[in-house]
Backbone:
């Protein structure tokens, strides 16, 4: 990347390849003479035009090879660990438009693989290698419901191919981050945190939501070398801050921020494929009202309770329950709710205020793989737990978001008021006072350790810290 950005060694990807081969050799279904074959991402055009979306590598391929170019394949000899990169054979005129063509030896040196061949040499390679088994990647992403595409080439039908075995093993490898990956994740979280602070100091009534987005994008790229974001920036103010995935094409962060608005800005840079995912909530004018303090501190206390308890061996479902219990208790203490908090939890009242899970795994995908793999706990069936993106016990080396939130969403408020199992807990006049409030989310990127956790998000979090930060306005 840039001269002042974090250097990413190819040893990171080499270690990932080694970890995968070790995991495969430990599986009795993987016989000697097996090869892994993956296909990298492809260039995608704008509909029927000759203009392409800016390429981003397919995440599994990035994990193993760290290759920037599209239309590549990669193979691994499971027994020896030998890595073979296959690159497209490009026409000579390509150099006129896109720059000098690299030689195979240059690709080999650049990506520190054992061999580099052209993609059209795939059939000949496997004919000579005579694999007993080719492992390709096909499995469903539990967040999107979409299936990964298995690699193929002309003549692959001549070999024994298993497209199901690799996916859960490779996904599980991605769950536990290596020290080299952790360094990259820490860097991109640091860049994103600094960019969030710039945004908080820039925003004020009269400016538009997209101006805040622009400040974030500029800092992440100009200072951090992060050309990509990990997802579409969510920059909600006022009632927009209660729209969980605001910022999409039909709601493009285009509202003017008003005095008295609460802002919820959820933005994360991406560096060498690795994601950050941080949310800051703050008052547009730099000073919290009493109502804003009430809701913000309810969410902050829920977040703090989780960070105090999260460590290896702790159930993520229990962390979600803890977060919801603390937030409901604080809402009760502030006069919005009444009754027994455990009964509120059992009735599912928490889902009225927070209709999403506590957080998710994060890595090469912002909602990273590994949530609901074979042999892991299944998705809970209770409505207020069913949105959890994973239900596993935490392990050292997992990297997760902790993102409790409290939102006032018309449709959910109306449903709660109409439900006798829920409305008995609600103090209606106080509840209705917040109908146009919007929402608050506090989201941190957290590395799980054996004895606790390390929060890589470094942004102002308390009311006092936020007000002090915003007083230093640009």
Residues:
């Amino acid at each position: 990347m840039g001269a002042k950005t974090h250097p990413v060694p190819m040893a990171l990807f080499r270690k990932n390849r080694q970890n995968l081969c070790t995991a495969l050799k430990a599986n009795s279904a993987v016989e000697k003479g097996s090869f892994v074959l993956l296909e990298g991402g492809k260039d995608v055009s704008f509909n029927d035009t000759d203009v392409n979306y800016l390429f981003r590598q397919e995440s599994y391929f990035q994990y193993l090879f760290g290759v920037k170019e599209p239309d590549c394949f990669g193979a691994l000899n499971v027994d020896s660990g030998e890595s073979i990169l296959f690159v497209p054979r490009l026409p000579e005129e390509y150099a006129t438009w896109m720059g000098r063509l690299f030689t195979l030896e240059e690709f080999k040196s650049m990506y520190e693989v054992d061999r580099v061949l052209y993609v059209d040499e795939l059939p000949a390679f496997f004919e000579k290698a005579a694999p007993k088994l080719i492992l390709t990647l096909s499995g469903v992403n539990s967040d999107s419901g979409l299936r990964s595409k298995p690699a193929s080439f002309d003549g692959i039908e001549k070999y024994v191919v298993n497209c199901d075995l690799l996916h859960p093993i490779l996904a599980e490898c991605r769950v536990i981050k290596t020290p080299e990956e952790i360094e990259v994740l820490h860097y991109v979280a640091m860049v994103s945190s600094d960019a969030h602070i710039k945004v908080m100091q820039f925003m004020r009534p009269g400016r538009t939501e997209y101006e805040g987005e622009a400040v974030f994008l500029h800092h992440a790229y100009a200072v951090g070398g992060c050309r990509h974001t990990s997802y579409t920036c969510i920059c909600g103010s006022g009632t927009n801050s209660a729209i969980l995935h605001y910022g999409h094409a039909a709601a493009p962060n285009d509202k003017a921020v008003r005095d008295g608005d609460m802002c919820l800005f959820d933005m994360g840079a991406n560096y060498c494929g690795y994601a950050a995912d941080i949310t800051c909530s703050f008052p547009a004018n730099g000073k919290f009202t009493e109502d804003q303090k009430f809701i913000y501190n309810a969410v902050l206390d829920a977040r703090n309770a989780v960070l105090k308890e999260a460590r290896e061996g702790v159930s993520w479902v229990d962390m979600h329950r803890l977060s919801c219990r603390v937030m409901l208790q604080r809402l009760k203490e502030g006069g919005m709710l009444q009754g027994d908090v455990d009964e509120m939890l059992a009735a599912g009242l928490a889902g009225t205020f927070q209709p999403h899970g506590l957080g998710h795994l994060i890595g090469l995908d912002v909602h990273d793989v590994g949530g609901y793999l074979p042999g892991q706990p299944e998705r809970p069936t209770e409505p207020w737990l069913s949105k959890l993106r994973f239900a596993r016990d935490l392990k050292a080396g997992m990297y997760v978001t902790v993102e409790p939130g409290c939102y006032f969403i018309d449709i959910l408020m109306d449903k709660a008021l109409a439900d006798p199992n829920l409305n008995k807990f609600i103090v209606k006049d106080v509840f209705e006072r917040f109908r146009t409030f919007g929402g608050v989310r506090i989201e941190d990127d957290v590395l799980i350790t054996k004895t606790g956790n390390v929060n890589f998000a470094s942004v102002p979090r308390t009311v006092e810290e936020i007000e002090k930060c915003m007083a230093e306005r640009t």
Remarks:
- The mean pLDDT is 97.
- The chain has two domains: 10-175, 179-472.
- The CA atoms of residues 22 and 135 lie 15 Å apart.
- The domain at 179-472 is CATH 3.90.230.10 (Creatine Amidinohydrolase).
